[in-house]
Write a structure and sequence with these properties.
Helix content is about 45%, strand content about 15%. The protein is an alpha/beta fold and about 220 residues long. The strands form three sheets. A four-stranded parallel sheet has the order 3-2-1-9. Strands 6-7-8 form a three-stranded parallel sheet. The structure holds 3-phosphoglyceric acid. The site of 3-phosphoglyceric acid (3PG) has 9 residues, from β9.
């Protein structure tokens, strides 16, 4: 799947809701109820980070949840891409982008949201055909003001910013023309997951799903 095709699919996924939950799952038993809670709250696209030993099991469990579109985040190696695809991930997210990761996503047919944080990185990815990119780490790399500025010379690229974004900060991003959605972990707090308080997570998801966006 070419980068251009990957970006078309990534755009569709990003348009499902204003927020993509970024999930760090420690207990595989949390995966299905967590996905159900987020989908029930109106957030269907879910990014499971490959940062915990059970992440791939979590993706497998979440792939069966009706209405969910589960992807794998923190892809760092071609092996991560292969494993994510085999586990049922429908999309991939990487904090940056390397030629090896990009080649692996082409080979596996996994739509990638490749990470970029500078004008040059964004341009290099655009040259390859990626018109939808992750902006990471969003708050630390310049935030909404930076993305607004980038939108003037490089309007062809749309972003899903992640990193340090909260319910309060999200509207600054979602009001920009070059933002499709934002990613964030605030909708799935660790303490709520540990307690199995899925109703609280559905409430957070509902709040996030109601955020207006301009693109
Ligand atoms: C991440 O990779 O952890 C994401 O960017 C989410 O960041 P957050 O935890 O600051 O929302």
């Amino acid at each position: 799947m070419t980068p251009a095709q990957q970006s078309l699919e990534a755009a569709e996924i990003c348009r499902l809701a204003p927020v993509v939950p970024v999930l760090v799952i420690d207990d595989p038993a949390h995966a299905a109820p967590l996905a159900q809670a987020l989908v029930a709250g109106g957030l269907p696209a879910l990014e499971v980070t490959l940062r915990t030993p059970c992440a791939l099991d979590a993706i497998r469990a979440m792939a069966d949840v009706p209405g969910g579109v589960v992807g794998a985040g923190t892809l760092l190696t071609p092996a991560d891409v292969k494993a994510a695809k085999a586990a049922g991930a429908k999309f991939g997210v990487s904090p940056g982008a390397t030629d090896r990761i990009i080649a692996a996503c082409e080979d596996e047919g996994l739509p990638l949201l490749p990470g970029a944080a500078t004008a040059t990185e964004i341009m290099l990815l655009l040259e390859k055909g990626f018109t939808v990119q992750k902006f990471f780490p969003a708050e630390q790399a310049g935030g909404a003001a930076y993305l607004k500025s980038i939108g003037s010379p490089i309007p062809q690229v749309s972003f899903c910013p992640t990193g340090g974004i909260s319910l309060k900060l999200a509207p600054d991003y979602l009001g920009l023309k070059n933002i499709l959605c934002v990613g964030g972990s605030w909708v799935a707090p660790k303490d709520a997951m540990a307690k199995g308080d899925w109703a609280a997570i559905t409430r957070l998801a509902r709040e996030a799903a109601a955020l207006p966006r301009s693109s």
